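From the shared-data thread, chain only:
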Amino acid sequence: MQKKIILLFLLFQVSSFLSQDLETTLQEIADDFGVMGMSLYVNVNGTVSETYIGHRDYTRNLPVNENTQYRIASVSKSFTALGLIKLINDGAIGLDDDISEVLDYELRNPNFLNIPITCRMLLSHTSSLQDGSGYAPFLDATYNQSPIPNISELLLASGSNYTANMWRQEIPGTYFTYSNINYGLIGTLIEVLSGQRFDIFMREQILIPLEIDGSFNIQDLIDINNVSVLYRYNNGWEAQWDNYQGIMPIAPNLNDYILGTNGIYFAPQGGLRITAREMNSIARALASDGAFYNLNITEENYQLMKAIAWDYNGSNGDNYGGLFNRWALGLHHANLSTSDTICIAISEIFIGHPGEAYGLISDNYFIEGSDVSFSFLINGVQQGYQVGTAAFYTIEEDIFEAICMHINQILNQVTFNDINFEIIPNPAKSYITITLPSELSNSEIGLLDIKGKTIKNIRTENKESIDLMLLGISKGVYFIQVNDGEKSSIKKLIVE
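Structure, as tokens:
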């Protein structure tokens, strides 16, 4: 016996649903949100899709293209983390060594003087350091004071920028607090351990092997015209950062800079400028345990970097409104729950890093154990950024949906005609009836909009009919996807 499900639509089968290319969908999203500029790079088993939309420099009418370099914000942290992993790999320090042993002072949380601060703690944001009230003034001093102050001025109680709230009250290694200072300190450690300035070490040991022309030092960039201006919209577009207008900034005098005193100067926490393709290179390197790029890091240490270092249990950290539920070493684990969803239709964990600063947002993720990854950057949105149904922004959620549909296409996780279901009438103005084979009566039905975004997931089990009038669906084109867990079919729906 067949089960009938009453829906509110007209439907007919069509293959053009998935044939709408990714670029077209992204352009629609950009138009909807008023995006200034966007770069997106998706790799699925070596099949690459690139999309470039809008302007990198609004004033000079310069378009975004494959050479557009963005200041990628906190996605920089994953590169910085890889730099420290490289030094751990080379035996310069151990993951659980006391970092005081390589600094020229003892660094301790004043509330826990007997507990060493380790590389693992810094990389996983569990060091008990946080961006307290002394952090912003110290940043200002770092970029404007000569000589550049030692980071100890911020971290030690005797320091001129020290504030007690730079340290938390929880035991180091037990509580997650996402903070920039952890990575400023990692940048400083990299200098001590390598004997090189942070930007130089990262360029030689990480960026060049990853085939990246970008840098943590803007002076290294080949063409300043490729750098994207970052914008916010306030009754008009306002440049927030990197508004160089084609003129390379004057190189700072670093002759008096002492290695290993303050790596924050080169912004290891957020100052890397690269393209979308270049940002994707670290995702492919990590996903493949170094198979695609030779950084002379062992497979064991790649896996160590990706392994769980902190798991949210409801009380052992600040999970950032549900966004951060699991961390590795410089890497975020996502797609674990409804609050950190990247792909509803893909159950695997995504590993990577998000970023946000000066009007820019960035996301860089891969699926572990696969050659599937994506990277995108946006340099400003007219509507601003609002949190969506999960903890990501609404525009991120829409872009994720488009990317995931694209990934599914290529991986053949979404196919046509694998499930034979009927929709009557066709067309219709008030309702339709979907008839499923009896052996598939417990399949799931997904209602999708024209961009492939899921509006509603419906499980047919124990449901004779489902009235979708309550969803407030207006006239237009929609899609229905039927999935039994192994195969699926999609048909187009027109509501008149």
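Residues 394-411 form the longest helix (18 residues).
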